Amino acid sequence: MKVLILLSTYNGQRYLSELLDSLEKQSGVETEILVRDDGSKDDTVEILRKYQQKYGNLHIHPDINQGACKSFLSLIDLASKKTYFDYAAFCDQDDVWLPNKLSAAVTLMQREHTDFYYSPYQLVDKNLQPLHDNDHFLPIKQLGPSLVYNSVTGCTILCSKKVIDMAASSHPAQIMMHDSWIFKVALANQCGVSVDNKSYILYRQHGDNVIGGTETAWNRLKRRWYNFSHPRCERSLEAEELYRNYYDVMNHEDKSLMDKIHQYKKKNLFQRFLIAFDPLFRTDKTINDLIFKIAILTKRF
């Protein structure tokens, strides 16, 4: 079984070697690493080239800086043009993977006959010492709740080649992040999802993360208030991309969901009330569902 690891790097020299060593220690699967460097100014590319010479299964694509989301979308496009792998995994430059991370994911997917997998992560500090869990993990397998809350962290994803090709068939302009997008693409195409309750990745927090996992309750409240006061409506923009690109392949229930959320700001208050309290959008996490209701009713979703 061959897994193509999609790694986006940017000024990652500090922890990159530790990550690459952990990728080479993956057991039970054959791996190949496809790297897109997002315009690094440090020694990241030089480190990559050393590992390329050492192991021979690493392919480097240096490019201009686009930011993490667009960089991973570019990797999806690159991966779709390759035919020799069974699964693809997304990888951050500063984590450490446990040796059975990929084999555990493949085993569960094969047992459940699914095309998409994700799991929780273990938060660690810069020295890989465990940190308190931030209650980030919420198992979701349906499209409705996925529009309300993104439960998927990219570095835990494993997906089939089929999902990569589905995601590469569109070129979304306004999405939150590559992980939330490819998860919704899989769901829109009725791909089965495996959710593992075990963590196989040390998710390092060091102050320079693009998206981190440590956040105090007070900071979370401030962030949510700022987002409410300065709405970017990223979730509805991503939902519109999904509607535009994949509506035709959705099943009847998901089409009904998308019809409700599509251009919701143009709907009257009563119609928005029905959306806000529709049980098919419920995540069963009180704070998420409350924020969704308020966002829909105030046109801030």
Major pleated sheet: 7 strands, mixed
Cα shape:
globular
How many runs of DSSP E, i.e. beta strands?
10
Instruction: Please state the average pLDDT score.
Output: 94
Offer a quick outline of the entry:
The chain is α/β, with parallel strands linked by helices.
Description:
This protein is an alpha/beta fold and 301 residues long. Helices cover 42% and strands 15% of the residues. The chain has 12 helices and 10 strands. Helix 6 (161-168) crosses helix 7 (178-188). The mean pLDDT is 94.
What descriptors fit this protein?
301 residues, 12 helices, single chain, alpha/beta, three-stranded mixed β-sheet
Topology at a glance:
Layout: E1 2-9, H1 16-24, E2 30-38, H2 44-55, E3 58-63, H3 68-80, E4 87-91, E5 96-97, H4 101-112, E6 116-118, E7 122-124, H5 143-148, E8 158-160, H6 161-168, H7 178-188, E9 193-195, E10 201-204, H8 217-229, H9 234-246, H10 252-261, H11 269-276, H12 286-297
Parallel strand pairs: 1-2, 1-4, 2-3, 6-9, 7-10
Antiparallel strand pairs: 4-8, 5-10, 6-8
Helix pairs in contact: 1-2, 3-6, 6-7, 11-12
